[in-house]
């Protein structure tokens, strides 16, 4: 059983990828950001909160939130859509992971 848990943890760094169309690329280009959760206990509220923080940081990175824009501090509709897409995609993946873990997978 200990070996199985180790194998599950080893793949945890690869299992959660977040994809989103970049906010300002104007193309069908897709970026992916890996989010590591192998060190988290997703059964605990603290572990879930930490994963949410990592996902938010990854979404902001994928969508280039911190990219310098000239002329305005307002977020564009494209950026908002990118963030919403990234968060929704990650949320689906986390739900699948949590469901698998509850079933003992």
Automatic annotation (TrEMBL):
<feature type="signal peptide">
    <location>
        <begin position="1"/>
        <end position="25"/>
    </location>
</feature>
<protein>
    <recommendedName>
        <fullName>UrcA family protein</fullName>
    </recommendedName>
</protein>
<keyword id="KW-0732">Signal</keyword>
<dbReference type="InterPro" id="IPR030972">
    <property type="entry name" value="UrcA_uranyl"/>
</dbReference>
